[in-house]
């Protein structure tokens, strides 16, 4: 949905209009391909984060504040596939100027949507003639909850939480995973899986890491410039981290011929890695044991600070690699599908879920 078009540009070309279309794909009838659905109430959205709750699609933000503030609704809207209709929903109490700088998740059992955003580091004085820098403000986030049944917003108590400090965060603007009221984020940086979780009931956060460089082949490295994906929850404390890697060609394999194919494909091949991890909390790992200087530096380097930080145990369950033959696209999202909903009954396996990926072209979805 409109992945690369600026909503404020005011462009009305046929090419721009094509970006505004929303399509659906029915896994029960894959031969039918992608079908157009109804247009959003506020279609000029720029990369809106998406959530699914009770078989309905929610899109959040990605629209100019001036367009929705006056009306009091429209920052978020919901799509019902049964009726093929979009409905704008009430705006949150505080405007979210940049939807790509917030966190999003669904509390399925409570029929709620959780939205969090870092507090601004600058705030205006009473006379609004200058701004004052509050260095500690950006270390806090405010959590809002949208109640689907009551159609209203509330603050999640305590409203101010010292969660993720304000730095170049690779998981902002992405759908987060919640298991037992604990939010999980995960990504790969410098060949190391880094996971943080936050329990919204106890207001405690946890951090863990796992060095996965030993699983790389010779000449293989992680492609960290591609979009960071959500961390799909498979079952219990098992999660699936999707990562792209590049394996360089051996010198003798290089024909030396010129090619118009992208640089990566000229010099090697890209793999999609499905890394299955077991992530659990070990509250006794550091209890009564002082952290080493290296451990303290690691925590502060990536801004996982505070006495409440406890270590997560992360272990590798399995890994599968799939070659990606066309380097002109990146993975943009990943969702967990209920396998029996789209497999014939006679072929339904005992496993209840499988991971599926949504691939986004560099230009369009």
UniProtKB/TrEMBL annotation:
<dbReference type="InterPro" id="IPR015915">
    <property type="entry name" value="Kelch-typ_b-propeller"/>
</dbReference>
<dbReference type="Pfam" id="PF01344">
    <property type="entry name" value="Kelch_1"/>
</dbReference>
<protein>
    <submittedName>
        <fullName>Uncharacterized protein</fullName>
    </submittedName>
</protein>
<dbReference type="InterPro" id="IPR006652">
    <property type="entry name" value="Kelch_1"/>
</dbReference>
């Amino acid at each position: 949905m409109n992945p690369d078009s600026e909503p404020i540009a005011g462009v009305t070309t046929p090419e721009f209009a094509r970006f505004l279309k929303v399509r659906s794909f029915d896994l029960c009838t894959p031969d039918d391909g992608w079908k157009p659905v109804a247009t959003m109430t506020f279609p000029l959205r720029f990369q809106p984060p998406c959530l699914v709750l009770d078989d309905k699609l929610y899109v959040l933000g990605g629209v100019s504040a001036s367009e929705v503030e006056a009306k009091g609704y429209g920052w978020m809207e919901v799509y019902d596939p049964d009726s093929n209709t979009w409905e704008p929903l009430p705006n949150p109490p505080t405007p979210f100027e940049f939807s790509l700088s917030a966190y999003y998740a669904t509390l399925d059992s409570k029929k709620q949507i959780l939205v969090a955003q870092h507090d601004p580091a600058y705030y205006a004085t009473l006379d609004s003639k200058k701004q004052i820098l509050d260095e500690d403000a950006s270390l806090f986030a405010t959590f809002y909850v949208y109640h689907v049944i009551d159609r209203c917003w509330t603050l999640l108590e305590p409203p101010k939480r010292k969660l993720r400090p304000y730095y170049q965060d690779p998981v902002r603007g992405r759908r987060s995973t919640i298991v037992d009221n604990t939010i999980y984020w995960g990504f790969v940086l410098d060949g190391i899986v880094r996971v943080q979780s936050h329990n919204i009931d106890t207001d405690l956060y946890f951090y863990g890491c796992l060095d996965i460089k030993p699983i790389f082949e010779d000449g293989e490295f992680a492609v960290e410039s591609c979009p960071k994906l959500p961390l799909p929850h498979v079952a219990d404390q098992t999660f699936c981290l999707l990562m792209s890697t590049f394996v360089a060609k051996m010198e003798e394999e290089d024909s030396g011929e010129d090619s118009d194919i992208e640089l990566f494909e000229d010099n090697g091949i890209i793999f999609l890695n499905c890394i299955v991890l077991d992530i659990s909390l070990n509250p006794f790992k550091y209890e009564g044991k002082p952290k080493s200087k290296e451990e303290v530096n690691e925590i502060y380097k990536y801004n996982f600070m505070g006495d409440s930080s406890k270590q997560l145990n992360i272990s590798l369950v399995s890994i599968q690699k799939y070659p990606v033959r066309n380097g002109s696209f990146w993975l943009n999202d990943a969702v967990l599908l209920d396998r029996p909903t789209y497999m014939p009954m006679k072929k339904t396996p005992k496993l209840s879920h499988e991971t599926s990926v949504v691939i986004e072209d560099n230009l369009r979805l």
